[in-house]
Here is the input.
Amino acid sequence: MSLAVVVSVITATSVITVGTADAAPAAQTWWIDSCGMPTQSKGGPAHSVKVRAWTKPGNRKTVVMLDGLRATNDVSGWEHNTRVGPDLAAKGVNVIQPVGGYMSFYSDWNTPDNFSRQGYTYKWNCVISKSLVGAMDRKKLRGPSGKYAIMGLSMSGSSALIIAGNNKNDFDSAASLSGYLNLTAPGMREAIRAAMIVPALDGGTPAMNVDAMWGPPWSTRWLDNDPFVQINKMRGLKKLFISTGSGIPGYTATLDAIIANPMLILQGAPLELGSSAMTHAFDLQAMFNRVPHQTFFPVQGLHDWPYWNDAVWNAYRQGFFRA
Here is the structure.
């Protein structure tokens, strides 16, 4: 896989709205401790992170759903582009969506980002593994298994697996949808560096310096955050689910959108090809190391929301959300 293909990593921003569903609980808004980061969403108290939640009495599982590279501070991309929050909650699964985390990989960074003059250090691993778990515990959302599930897409696919692997007392299930699951593969460090600059060129959003995240390419923190390298930390998870498409477009709605916006195919195909290569490598790594996991590898699939929506419901049908 060429560096030109991989450079597209995690930069998809297409917005396609999926259909509605009946009988769904209303969204709740929480504010949780930000582990020292300033409040980024409007209306919250100082040093807080906004969370959107759909819960229903009697639901037997709770899943944390993480956002992609260009996460915004109003609501999660999951809420912008799908109805998985209310629809899963109506089917027995509480859904919790932290808001924000732009380019963060939901990790604790080494230093403040100097490209965007951030002025503070990202502490998203702390937010998810401590503040959010604490808030869910106070609301008694663990369910019969006593543990939570976590799911990420694109940028956060690797994050979900690493957070679960490092926090098995709190998480027993982890899923990656179109994630990049071998971050230290040849060319990947350079590709992620480029991917964190591209938004400043095509979307008017800030570039960020990957060295501020996990340090220079030779830093061991890259290895610490690579699911391929940390495969044995996934051992013991009750459910491990990985999904990726082929880079081939499908669905009438998506094809119509491609005609209207050719960037969907120009970005979405190489993005998914990169994810496919690394997710299949992780699949082989998990099999070699005898780490049980579930897969969903559809023949069609771009790096885009309708496919991630499909992957969520495939995970549901495979029993990923069962307590």
User: Anything to note?
Assistant: Residues 263-288 form the longest helix (26 residues). The CA atoms of residues 269 and 311 lie 17 Å apart. The two ends are 39 Å apart (CA to CA).
